[in-house]
Design a protein that fits this description.
Elements lengths: L7 E7 L12 E6 L5 H8 L18 E6 L3 E5 L10 H17 L3 E9 L6 H12 L4 E6 L9 H12 L6 E4 L8 H12 L1
Parallel strand pairs: 2-4, 2-5, 5-6, 6-7
Antiparallel strand pairs: 1-3, 3-4
């Protein structure tokens, strides 16, 4: 791996473009439903216990969190979507903030779109994938919680996810588990391919 993952810090939690870091560093955004395992994915990649805070309360990330990885790359953790207990107004505010970032940020190289491998992608998951394809933003699809499914059923679940999303075969697909680190090296390899 080309990054020193021991050299990691939070640059800023931004609410709008006025607060984005003024750097030329490439950025990889991470998007997914509340409780899809986004914080666990980040923590596993960075080999930390709770760098990105995992919360028993979904919908906790309400800003764009820019994590500086070895002064080489920013991970941008965007608010989880699809969480019902947040007011409609609040959800629209987040939606606008996420959309502004994804459609205007020149540093953005790709979006890691996380889906729960156990379930068929939700309407929100489909909408996110279609949004990224519409704006021609490179997608790395990561199916989380693979340890919760017998390996013999992985192919079946992968096919279900790809069919529901009308998955573009030119996109990367990574099966991942933060529990046993399945897919960790593959996820890093794909991310690095966008940062060169």
């Amino acid at each position: 791996m080309k990054f020193n993952i021991h050299n990691v810090s939070l640059t800023i939690s931004a609410a709008s473009s006025k607060q984005y870091p003024e750097t030329a560093m490439p950025e990889i955004a991470l998007a997914g439903r509340s409780n899809v395992g986004k914080s666990s994915f980040i923590n596993t990649l960075l080999n930390r216990k709770n760098f990105a805070r995992t919360s028993g309360r979904p919908g906790k990330t309400q800003l764009l969190n820019f994590f500086n990885i070895d002064d080489t790359l920013h991970f941008v953790d965007v608010p989880g979507y699809g969480y019902a207990r947040v007011s409609k107004k609040e959800r629209e505010k987040w939606g606008g903030m996420i959309e502004e970032y994804l459609t205007t940020r020149a540093n953005l190289r790709a979006v890691v779109s996380l889906v729960d491998m156990r379930h068929e992608p939700s309407a929100d998951d489909v909408q996110m994938y279609e949004f990224l394809k519409y704006y021609e933003i490179p997608v790395i699809l990561v199916a989380t919680k693979a340890d919760k499914i017998p390996r013999s059923k992985w192919n079946k679940h992968e096919s279900m996810i790809k069919r529901t999303l009308q998955f573009d075969s030119t996109d990367d697909f990574v099966i991942f588990s933060s529990f046993d680190k399945t897919g960790l090296d593959e996820a890093w390899a794909v991310i690095e391919s966008f940062v060169d």
